[in-house]
Amino acid sequence: MSDKPSILIVGAGAIGSFYGAILKKAGCRVSAVLRSEYDAVKANGISVSSPLGDLSYRPDNVYRDGDTPEEAPDYLILCVKVLPGVDRVSLVKPWMGKNTRLVLIENGLDIERELADAFPDNPLISCLAFIAASRTAPGVVEHKAYGKLVMGSFPKGIDESCQTLADLFTEGGIKIDLTDQVVGERWRKCLWNTPFNPLSVIANGADTLSILDAEGGEDLIRAMIREVMAVAAAEGYPMDEKVIEQNIEGTRAMPAYKNSMALDYLNGRPIERDAVLGNVVAIAKHHGIAVPHLNTVLVTLRIRGLLESA
Amino acid sequence: MSDKPSILIVGAGAIGSFYGAILKKAGCRVSAVLRSEYDAVKANGISVSSPLGDLSYRPDNVYRDGDTPEEAPDYLILCVKVLPGVDRVSLVKPWMGKNTRLVLIENGLDIERELADAFPDNPLISCLAFIAASRTAPGVVEHKAYGKLVMGSFPKGIDESCQTLADLFTEGGIKIDLTDQVVGERWRKCLWNTPFNPLSVIANGADTLSILDAEGGEDLIRAMIREVMAVAAAEGYPMDEKVIEQNIEGTRAMPAYKNSMALDYLNGRPIERDAVLGNVVAIAKHHGIAVPHLNTVLVTLRIRGLLESA
C-alpha cells in the first residue's frame, strides 16, 4: 500500500484518463468511475500514448455508477464536461468522503460554485488544462501535446491539499502553475475561449485564421474580448488592455486550428455553451454590463438548438 | 401592335417571370433576356400557375446576353438578385435606350444608387415585392400567394412613368402601393428582413418561430430592429417605437415559416447578404452609429464564407 494519496477519476475521457495516468506514474493508487467504457477498461485498462512515453495503466479499481466504493478517495478528480444535462453534484456525491478533496479539471467560468455549495466542508481545487488529447477508442487515449495545469484552491488561495496535488502532478511529469487566484485565471483563459470557441461553432467549425481573416473578424474578436474583460473587471479581475492584442497576435502566430468546441461540434458532441459563454453573459447581466456581441452569439447558438444536452 | 408600353424583363426568374406575366395580361409587349433558361423559354414560353389563374405566356422576344435588341424597351424591369458578383450595370446597359425607364424589383437597402449613377438621365422606379413564388423548372413558375408591389420613383416622388407602370400592374390584377418615399419603405421592410433573414441563415435555415422562441430570441430581434431603426432615422426615415412590437407580433401571428434567404441558403443558392445586412452596417458606420448585434451577425456570415458570389 502506497502512502501516496488515493485518487478517483470521475469522467475518464481523454482528460481524466491522461491526468490519472500522470498520478499513477507519481505512485498514487488511481481508480476510475466509468459509464460506457466500463467493460473495455475493466478488461484492458487504460491505454495512453504520449510524447512523455507510454502512460498506459490499469486502474486500481474500476467502478461504474451505482457501485459502492471500497474507500472514499483522498482526491476525487472530476473531468466531465460542464453541461446543463449533467448533474455533477449527483455524479460525485456517492464517492465523496468526509476528507475527500474535490478537484475540477474542467473548462469555463463559474463552474465551481454549484459544487462548493454542495460540499462546503471539502476543499475544492480548481484546475484549467492546457492540453491536446483525444479519446480514439474505449479506454484508448492519445495525448498529443502540452498538458500544463493551472491550479488553485477555490475560491482563492493555495491550501495544503492543493500544494500536495501539485507536487504529485509535477512528480508525474507535467507542468503545474499554482495560482492563488484561480478564478482570475479562468477569466484570463475565457478571454480567448469565449470569443473563439462559440464563433467557430456558429461558423460550422471554422478554424482560428478563418475567423481572424474574415472581413471584420479581428474587430469582432476584439469587441468580444473587450466585453469579457469588462465583466471580469466587474468581478474583481481587471486586466490590462494589451491582452487584447496579445490574444490576437498569439493566435496569428500559431497555425490555423480548430478549437476543442469546434471539434466537439463537428463530431456531433454536445458543446459547453453555457460554461464558456452563457455564464459570462449571465454575470454581465447581473452587473448590468452590456455585452451585445457575446449575447448575439449566445442567442444564435440557442436558436440553432446547440443546446448541450448530454 | 399595342399602344401599351413595351417591357423587357432582365432576370426572368420567379419574380421577373411573374410580373412579366401580369404586364402581358395588361396588354403590354413583354420580352425577356435569359441565360440558362433561354432554350426552354424560347421553345415553350413561360409557364406561370397562380391563384389568379393560368398566367402562362410567350414573350414577344426572347433574348440572351449578347443579342442585339430590336428596339429599346419603354420599361426595363431588372429582377436579378443583388450580389457582389453580379454587375447589374453591365447587365442592363446593352438594353437601355434614351427613353427607357429602369425598374428595379429587388430586395435590400441602398441598391438603387449604383444604377441611378450609371443612367442619370433615365427615370428609375424602385419596387419592393411582397410575394411568394418559386421557379420549379426552367421557364416554369409557381405563384403561391400575395404579389403586391410597393413602388415609387427613386430617390423620391412618383413621376408619370411610375404612375403609368402602376396602372398597368393594377390592370393586370395585382395590388400596387404607390409611395413618394420608396427608400423609406425599403427601410421599413428591412426592419424585418435585416434581423430575420440573416439570423435564419446563421441558424442553418431556422424558421421564424424557432428564432422568436429561443431563449433571448425575441430580445435579440428587438435589439436588431432597434439598430436598423437608428440607422433609418439617421438617413431621414424615423419610425415609431411601436413598429418593434408590431414586427414581433405580426411574425407570431403567422405560422412558422422559412424566409426567402433561409430558402436560398438551404437550396445552396447565394444569399443577398450585403443588400439586406451589409449595406445597413456600412451606412451605420458612415453615420457613426454602433450596431453591434447586426455587425456580429454580418461578420459571422462572412466567417462562414457565406459570401454571395453568384
TrEMBL record, chains A, B:
<dbReference type="InterPro" id="IPR013752">
    <property type="entry name" value="KPA_reductase"/>
</dbReference>
<feature type="domain" description="Ketopantoate reductase C-terminal">
    <location>
        <begin position="183"/>
        <end position="302"/>
    </location>
</feature>
<dbReference type="GO" id="GO:0008677">
    <property type="term" value="F:2-dehydropantoate 2-reductase activity"/>
</dbReference>
<dbReference type="InterPro" id="IPR013332">
    <property type="entry name" value="KPR_N"/>
</dbReference>
<comment type="similarity">
    <text>Belongs to the ketopantoate reductase family.</text>
</comment>
<dbReference type="InterPro" id="IPR013328">
    <property type="entry name" value="6PGD_dom2"/>
</dbReference>
<feature type="domain" description="Ketopantoate reductase N-terminal">
    <location>
        <begin position="7"/>
        <end position="155"/>
    </location>
</feature>
<dbReference type="InterPro" id="IPR051402">
    <property type="entry name" value="KPR-Related"/>
</dbReference>
<dbReference type="GO" id="GO:0015940">
    <property type="term" value="P:pantothenate biosynthetic process"/>
</dbReference>
<keyword id="KW-0521">NADP</keyword>
<comment type="pathway">
    <text>Cofactor biosynthesis; (R)-pantothenate biosynthesis; (R)-pantoate from 3-methyl-2-oxobutanoate: step 2/2.</text>
</comment>
<dbReference type="Pfam" id="PF02558">
    <property type="entry name" value="ApbA"/>
</dbReference>
<protein>
    <recommendedName>
        <fullName>2-dehydropantoate 2-reductase</fullName>
        <ecNumber>1.1.1.169</ecNumber>
    </recommendedName>
</protein>
<dbReference type="Pfam" id="PF08546">
    <property type="entry name" value="ApbA_C"/>
</dbReference>
<dbReference type="InterPro" id="IPR003710">
    <property type="entry name" value="ApbA"/>
</dbReference>
<comment type="function">
    <text>Catalyzes the NADPH-dependent reduction of ketopantoate into pantoic acid.</text>
</comment>
<dbReference type="GO" id="GO:0005737">
    <property type="term" value="C:cytoplasm"/>
</dbReference>
<keyword id="KW-0560">Oxidoreductase</keyword>
<dbReference type="InterPro" id="IPR036291">
    <property type="entry name" value="NAD(P)-bd_dom_sf"/>
</dbReference>
<keyword id="KW-0566">Pantothenate biosynthesis</keyword>
<dbReference type="InterPro" id="IPR008927">
    <property type="entry name" value="6-PGluconate_DH-like_C_sf"/>
</dbReference>
